[in-house]
UniProtKB/TrEMBL annotation:
CC per GO annotation: plasma membrane
Name used for this protein in its record: Toll-like recptor 2
Lineage, highest ranks first: Eukaryota, Metazoa, Spiralia, Lophotrochozoa, Mollusca
InterPro entries in UniProt: Leu-rich_rpt, Leu-rich_rpt_typical-subtyp, LRR_dom_sf, TIR_dom, Toll_tir_struct_dom_sf
Keyword annotations of the record: Glycoprotein, Leucine-rich repeat, Membrane, Receptor, Repeat, Signal, Transmembrane, Transmembrane helix
Organism: Oncomelania hupensis
Membrane protein topology class: Single-pass membrane protein
Length: 989
């Protein structure tokens, strides 16, 4: 376990290995992701395969052999990681000639049969780490274990049982293999010539760490090797362990060498292997153990390339016991060290000019985790780097972890002034205060200060921030994670407190310093008040100074317990302010001077006292994070959107975990540029808010609420954004872990979820509130939607069918009634249009004596005889349609008015009249008039004989029930005279 832990902490030695493992494991993750997304998933025996057949994931399936027959032959990546396979049988991978990557790590493989990998001509990466391979007897076959692998470039055999490996093992891949990991085995060199890897002519990366090497030999390596890791072995720093010609074959190629954690640093006979290293003229990175009281030997003078040198130990100071750096420690590497890591080396003393030889080359200096070094010693060390090219300084944990009252004085920073440092890391130093003037010594080039894990409090040093003219970023986070309990008592007082020789310079109380400084001077009228109350109650007029170029400030996990009220900052360029994970419970305002802030994080402050106009102090904010507070009450009371309304440029709003149960409809009014709205982990029952003005909205995160459905207004606007405003962007709505209403009543909403262009997360992360009241948790809602669409359609069909039948029945009844009374309805309709009123049956009520209904074919008879006899001779008033109807009026209105204004309707019955549609209409209207008024209306004049079979039932009925008179057929004068007299009398009756 210790070996694994140490291997994880190696900073740069296994960069390529890490990339490979990431590619293996990332490939597995990608495979799983593709398998999850592809629907339906392809089952391939006990494994899971992508729908395309290119990826096969057999991880953790308790396999004892390779399932060759179950996997797709088209696979390009197969992982058999974490199973119980004990051997690879002959032809196990023969079907997979397209395979490019194969992971069979973490198994129990101890045997590889002949031609087990036959057929893998295209394989490029093979991971067989963490098995039980021995390979000592593998060369009993005529071919090696990797026979047929013509394209293999990377091979991982770490974590096996390899010791004396015969060169024949790698003969079949000698021309292609460039990357080989043999770490964590039992390998050693026992005068083998050639050694096992010497046959690999194109090898560029070789990892031999965590083995049993006690010496190395030149025949172990060939020209062309770029990276070599020999760390965590037992190779002493001596001519035996590292012979002078050890790196002779790689002197013109090797660029990276790691030999740390090998020697016994307490052995006073050991020296840095400078003679062996002197051959490596192209070396750019070297990691080795730190020996006490040893300078780098003369052999280092031959190294001419810029060198990154790591002489670092392990927790507790193991493998690095330098303790003291003297003026001659780095004399032999003058001008070539670009970065120097001296972390965890138990450093206590650094002389004034120890780093002077590195003044014009050293850019990065790491002195971290030397907890007895202290700020004063670092200041001394920087004396040798005055006017140097140093850019980055790491001084993390350079004081005892139990230090108290840690103050950095002006004397502790005096040598920083003339450096060119741009970034300082001073984490985990328990700094509580910078004494006045300490920060004024910081170089003008300083742009970033990272001070995590300190205990900075309010003090006069804050006013010195204004002198740090180039500072752009400050990070002063506290302790984000819980610390382990102390396991030892300090040997002496670890702090300065009263024992500090500088306590008089920085020992005043905070409030005493404030009271005496003109920056925080109170108005004269308040002077007397300060004598009887705490000063913090009277510093409303204080203006807090920030560095003029500061753009980012972080102070998280510092237990800040202040009221954000009446704060005033000097003009500044601050754009990012992160005060998350503190105790800022009251957001009152106003806050003056932070109008340029575009990113504001006040998350996890347990805030509950918030004024609605607080955010008006941050008009330029584009990203606002206020999760994990208690904003539910203030948001519920904000009916007009006053809280967030001033943030018109806001693009990201995170109000998750705020116990919000009500969102007023206009709470987000004014946020027209909002793109991401995060309301996760609240108590919302609905999301009925106005978002119609948010045309840039592409994410609404609503998971873990109590939302059952979305309103039609919200759905319509999201469709509008997805289809019209941002068709090339993905609009996402997350409703996972909400009790969605999975009922027929809300099928429209569920159908929208499935069919809309708006994207909803897939998977079994939804809850469904069913029609029977049951809550189904962690289900695939899209499968439920399909079931509901089928079941609800069946019920809908029945309901629709019943409704249609009922409607048809009602329609039939209404149609029958309308048809039965059609003429009466027509009559009443037109009578109402004419404002008809029933009149008494007397002589003066009619404008005409008769309305003549006749066929146009009988025009001559009507106009030449009938009108002459009845109007001119008998004195009757007749209304004739082609003579008396009002032009421009509907014919129906003229007919009805003629019938109503005439005493009788005279029908001149002929065969031609029976063919007329208007005649039937006139007769029906006259019939309705008779029924409605109770008077005799119809009078038939049979001008020509009409057979009974040509008459309709209505005509026959009316002839039988109405008065009629026949026109004389012979035309005798006396008969005609009698006919016209009788007709006149009938009309007058």
């Amino acid at each position: 376990m210790e070996r694994l832990a140490v291997r994880r902490k190696r900073m740069n030695s296994l960069v390529l290995l890490t990339l490979l493992l990431c590619s293996f494991h990332g490939g597995v993750t990608t495979a799983k992701r593709m398998i999850d997304v592809d629907l339906p998933a392809v089952k391939c025996g006990p494994c899971l395969c992508s729908h395309s057949g290119f990826l096969a994931d057999c991880t953790s399936k308790n396999l004892t052999s390779v399932p060759s027959k179950d996997l797709p032959a088209t696979a390009t990546f197969i992982t058999l990681r974490n199973n119980s396979i004990t051997k690879l049988e002959q032809g196990a991978f023969r079907p997979f000639n397209s395979l490019q990557r194969l992971d069979i790590s973490v198994n129990k493989i101890h045997r590889i049969d002949k031609e087990a990998f036959c057929g893998l001509e295209n394989l490029e990466l093979l991971d067989m780490s963490n098995n039980s391979l021995w390979l000592n007897d593998i060369c009993l076959y005529r071919s090696g274990p990797f026979f047929g692998m013509k394209s293999l470039r990377r091979l991982d055999l770490s974590g096996n049982q390899l010791d004396d490996v015969n060169p024949c093992v790698f003969e079949d891949v000698s021309d292609t293999l460039t990357w080989l990991d043999l770490s964590d085995n039992h390998m050693r060199y026992v005068n083998q010539s050639p050694w096992s890897t010497f046959v690999l002519g194109n090898l560029t990366f070789l990892d031999l760490s965590f083995n049993n090497f006690s010496n190395i030999h030149k025949d172990m390596f060939r020209e062309g090797l770029l990276v070599l890791n020999l760390s965590f072995n037992r190779i002493p720093y001596s001519d035996t362990g590292f012979p002078v010609d050890a790196f002779q074959n790689v002197n013109r190629s090797l660029t990276r060498l790691e030999i740390q954690t090998n020697c016994n640093v307490s052995d006073i006979t050991q020296n840095y292997p400078d003679q062996a290293l002197s051959k490596l003229t192209r070396l750019s990175y070297l990691a080795m153990d730190g020996l006490p009281n040893r300078a780098l030997g003369p052999g280092f003078k031959n190294l001419t390339k810029p060198l990154n040198l790591t002489i670092s130990g392990r927790p507790g100071g193991e493998q690095c016991q330098i303790q003291e750096l003297k003026n001659d420690t780095f004399q032999t590497v003058a001008g070539i060290i670009r970065s120097l890591d001296l972390s965890m080396c138990n450093l206590t003393t650094i002389t004034f000019d120890a780093f002077s030889p590195l003044r014009y080359s050293l850019e990065v200096l790491v002195l971290s985790y030397n907890n007895r070094l202290g700020f004063a010693t670092v200041n001394t060390a920087l004396h040798g780097l005055q006017h140097s090219v140093l850019r980055i300084l790491y001084i993390d944990a350079i004081v005892d972890s139990l230090s108290m009252c840690m103050m950095v004085t002006e004397l502790d920073t005096r040598n920083y002034r003339n450096t060119s440092i741009t970034t300082i890391y001073a984490r985990r130093n328990r700094i509580e205060l910078f004494c006045e003037g300490a920060l004024r010594n910081m170089p003008k080039t300083l742009t970033e200060a990272v001070l995590y894990g300190n205990k900075l409090d309010f003090g006069l040093y804050l006013k010195d921030l204004h002198y740090m003219e180039g500072l752009q970023s400050i990070q002063v986070d506290g302790y984000p994670e819980a610390l382990y309990p102390p396991r030892y008592f300090p040997s002496s007082d670890p702090g300065r407190c009263q024992a500090s020789p500088h306590s008089s310079l920085c020992g005043k109380s905070i409030y005493e310093s404030i009271r005496n400084h003109p920056m925080y001077a109170l108005p004269t009228s308040h002077q007397d008040m300060t004598q009887h109350g705490p000063v913090e109650d009277y510093i409303d007029s204080a203006i807090y100074t920030l560095p003029p170029k500061l753009s980012s400030f972080k102070s998280r996990y510092n237990e800040l317990h202040w009221r954000l009220e009446k704060l005033h900052f000097n003009p500044n360029q601050l754009t990012s302010l992160d005060l998350a994970n503190n105790l800022l419970t009251a957001w009152i305002g106003p806050v003056i001077g932070l109008e340029n802030v575009t990113s504001l994080n006040l998350s996890n402050n347990l805030a509950f006292d918030i004024h609605l106009d607080f955010f008006s102090s941050f008009p330029a904010t584009k990203s606002l994070f206020v999760s994990h507070n208690f904003l539910g009450k203030v948001i519920a009371s904000d009916q007009s959107g006053q809280l967030f309304g001033p943030l018109m440029q806001l693009e990201v709003l995170n109000v998750s975990n705020n116990y919000i149960n009500v969102l007023p409809h206009q709470v987000f009014q004014g946020l027209g540029n909002l793109q991401v709205l995060d309301l996760q982990h609240n108590d919302l029952d609905n999301f009925n808010v106005n978002i119609t003005h948010m045309n840039s909205l592409i994410q609404i995160l609503l998971s873990d609420n109590n939302i059952k459905y979305l309103s039609q207004e919200v759905m319509d606007h999201l469709d509008y954004v997805a289809e019209k405003v941002a068709p090339n962007k993905t609009v996402i709505v997350d409703l996972t872990f909400n009790p969605l209403a999975c009922t027929c009543e809300h099928l429209d909403f569920l159908t929208w979820v499935e069919e809309s262009k708006v994207v909803f997360p897939k998977g079994d992360s939804y809850n469904c509130f069913m029609a029977d009241g049951d809550l189904h948790q962690k289900i695939n809602v899209f499968k439920i939607i399909d079931l509901l669409q089928a079941s609800c359609v069946d019920k809908l069909g029945i309901l629709v069918g019943a409704a249609v039948c009922f409607f048809c029945l009602i329609l039939a009844i209404v149609s029958a009634v309308l048809y039965r009374f059609r003429w009466k309805l027509r009559y009443l309709y037109y009578a109402s249009r004419l404002a008809y009123n029933r009149l008494d049956n007397d002589e003066q009520q009619f404008a005409y004596d008769a309305f003549v209904s006749y066929s146009t074919e009988d025009h001559s008879f009507v106009h030449n005889e009938l009108i002459h006899e009845l109007e001119e001779k008998a004195g009757l008033r007749l209304i004739v349609h082609n003579r008396d109807f009002t032009p421009g009026r509907p014919v129906v209105s003229n007919i009805l008015e003629a019938i109503q204004s005439s005493r009788r309707t005279l029908v001149v019955l002929t065969p031609e009249l029976l063919k007329s549609d208007w005649y039937h209409y006139e007769m029906q209207m006259a019939t309705m008039e008779a029924a409605h008024t109770g008077r005799d209306v119809l009078l038939f004049l049979i001008y020509e004989s009409v057979p009974g079979d040509q008459m309709s039932r209505e005509v026959l009925f009316n002839l039988q029930n109405s008065t009629y008179i026949e026109y004389p057929t012979r035309g005798v004068t006396q008969q005609l005279r009698d006919f016209w007299e009788r007709l006149s009398q009938a009309i007058r009756q």
